[in-house]
Design a protein that fits this description.
The structure holds 2 protein chains of 2 kinds.
Chain A: H1 16-24, H2 29-41, H3 43-62, H4 68-89, H5 117-121, H6 136-155, H7 159-173, H8 180-193, H9 204-218, H10 221-237, H11 242-245, H12 247-263, H13 276-291, H14 297-314, H15 316-321
Chain B: H1 3-9, H2 11-24, H3 29-52, H4 60-80, H5 87-92, H6 94-105, H7 110-119, H8 127-136, H9 161-186, H10 190-198, H11 204-211, H12 215-235
Helix pairs in contact in B: 1-3, 2-3, 2-4, 3-4
The chains are: A mainly alpha, B mainly alpha.
């Protein structure tokens, strides 16, 4: 048979990936508008969009079999499987020899920050910037940021933002098929978001557990750093003391610095190095938290500034997108 | 993970989507099997170029689904030639174009096409009238319509000169009405236009999910849009019933 398919798109028609991104809702408002205008005018592209949308809907249905009250049980089963999997593959473990950092199941963002949370997301949610291409420290750090984004989105009752975080997590998971149980748990969460009877805030425990399983699987200081920096940045932006008052958040800088110190005793190929610039920022934050009983405007601004440097370092797109 | 590994790890998904897409578009069993095989080859072609083209703007599965839909469109054109409404259908008016499309592009049987026009597009014509109209459409060599014998008792394709004149006048009226409809639609937002286009093919709940809209307000929005559309048509002297089949249908059952 002769070749039938041509990957080159007709002039003026969007790329296939743009059509897919439209369906995944990862395009910016202007791009979305441009594609909608095009779909109305171009029968061929509309047909591709409609056909692919049908499969998108099917995938939502696959994950929407159980109502949310039962979904938790399903999630937990999936997460348990993921945990077993993580042990089975024998990933490196830093927790065994060090005190735990922030509890895996801690709710990092307090309800008080929900009002201002969108100020934060507009930076690092990284629309369409290639989460799937990230690797190593940047990827693990991004997981941590998105886990917090999801938590904050659910607290704010914002379905779109919450789904956006899940999409980013899915992208990051995309090339790691050994964690299908975790992918499934996030698919379940995404499907539950689309159930109008589901209250986003009630999904928090399941989202937190999914994040915990992800952290367990990654077993990475970068993941923990991403969670801590994202939650801290949101809280500092909102002038909310809840996060900084928590003992875990206060102990995190010390834990990270000790973790780094211990790396020196390990063979070079086993070392997990946190960048010196980042460690400097972490030390500065530790100092602020140690010196002050209560945080004032100025301290919040300093914390926000130091935390944003951490985010900039491992989340470089954030700097590009922030005015 | 290399592009090839990515392909292999998603092979079951690719096969499933290709198979379902082929079935949805009424490819014969043999054509569907060929299509699935061709899709696999296409993904591997040129060192998995199609996978390497993915830059992470979308989820990988959504991207694969979109790529497969594109392959299918090209495959259908390859099998049957690119569909263009016949000159005769255009002359007979928009209802004839729609019927031509259902019969010769979507490959529905005449009975199925009649049901679709009636259910989804609220065409009030009788079955006999639709059969008459189908009889005037030129047959296409490549079409393979199940139950094609159903067309055997259609009216003669050669209409009388009076009938031709009537058809011509009706086509001109419809063309003018459609022009007005286009003008009215153009005053709405892109999203409104797309929503109206998706009706009939998708349920309102599905449109809400695909476009990321709240479902309940969308029902109200669609009702309002339809009402405004009909009122504006009437205000400009067009009977909405004359445009049956080209106005947004009721929600798909």
């Amino acid at each position: 048979m002769t070749s039938f398919a041509n990957l080159h798109r007709p002039e003026g028609c969007p790329d296939l990936e743009e059509i897919a991104a439209f369906i995944d809702k990862t395009l910016g408002p202007q791009e979305r508008q441009r594609l909608m205008r095009h779909f109305v005018q171009c029968r061929d592209c509309y047909e591709i969009f409609a056909g692919a949308s049908r499969f998108y809907l099917d995938s939502l249905e696959e994950g929407k079999v159980v109502p949310f009250s039962r979904k938790k049980a399903v999630l937990q089963t999936g997460l348990a499987a993921a945990a077993v999997l993580a042990v089975a593959v024998g990933v490196r473990s830093y927790r065994a020899s060090l005190e735990p950092p922030i509890s895996a199941t801690a709710q990092l963002v307090s309800p008080g920050v929900a009002r201002t949370a969108t100020d934060f997301w507009d930076g690092p949610r990284d629309r369409g910037r290639g989460e799937g291409e990230k690797e190593g420290a940047e990827r693990e750090f991004s997981f941590g940021v998105q886990v917090v984004n999801l938590q904050a989105g659910l607290i704010a009752g914002n379905r779109e933002r919450s789904e956006d975080a899940i999409i980013q997590i899915h992208r990051l998971l995309g090339q790691e098929l050994a964690v299908d149980a975790i992918q499934k748990s996030y698919s379940d969460l995404r499907a539950a978001l689309w159930n109008p009877r589901t209250v986003p805030q009630e999904m928090l425990p399941a989202a937190t557990q999914a994040g915990a399983a992800l952290g367990e699987r990654l077993d990475s200081p970068y993941f923990e750093l991403g969670r801590w920096a994202a939650a801290g940045f949101i809280s500092a932006s909102a002038r909310d003391p809840h996060f900084f008052d928590s003992r875990e958040a206060q102990r995190f800088p010390g834990w990270l610095l000790r973790h780094q110190k211990r790396q020196e005793d390990l063979p070079e190929n086993e070392q997990v190095e946190i960048a010196p610039e980042v460690l400097d920022e972490v030390r500065a934050i530790e100092q602020i938290l140690e010196e002050r009983d209560s945080l004032e405007e100025e301290e919040y601004d300093q914390l926000k500034s130091h935390l944003s440097e951490v985010l900039y370092f491992y989340y470089p797109y954030y700097r590009e997108e922030t005015p | 993970m290399t592009p090839r590994d990515l392909f292999l790890s998603h092979l079951n998904h690719i096969r499933k989507v290709a198979k379902h897409a082929a079935r949805r578009h009424k490819l014969s069993t043999q054509d569907a099997e060929d299509f699935v095989s061709e899709v696999e080859l296409k993904f591997l072609e040129d060192d998995c170029k199609v996978i390497r083209m993915h830059k992470g703007k979308s989820g990988i599965r959504t991207y694969f689904n979109t790529v497969i839909q594109n392959f299918l469109r090209d495959y259908k054109n390859h099998l049957w030639g690119k569909f263009r409404p016949s000159a005769e259908a255009k002359r007979l008016g928009t209802l004839a174009v729609k019927l031509d499309e259902l019969l010769h592009r979507e490959r529905y049987t005449l009975d199925q096409a009649y049901d679709l026009l009636k259910t989804n597009h609220h065409i009030e014509k009788s079955e006999r009238e639709i059969r008459d109209l189908a009889g005037r459409l030129p047959s296409r060599a490549a079409r393979q319509i199940d139950g094609e014998e159903a067309l055997a008792d259609l009216s003669a394709p050669d209409p009388s000169p009076e009938q031709r004149l009537l058809d011509k006048e009706r086509a001109a009226n419809l063309q003018a009405a459609l022009q007005i409809l286009d003008e009215i639609l153009a005053t709405h937002s892109e999203e409104d236009q797309l929503i109206l286009q998706m009706l009939g093919e998708f349920q309102v709940a599905e449109i809400a999910r695909v476009l990321g809209l709240e479902q309940k307000p969308l029902y109200r929005r669609i009702d309002k849009l339809k009402k405004e559309l009909k009122e504006e048509l009437q205000r400009r002297g067009v009977n909405p019933e004359d445009l049956a089949g080209f106005l947004p249908p009721e929600e798909k059952e």
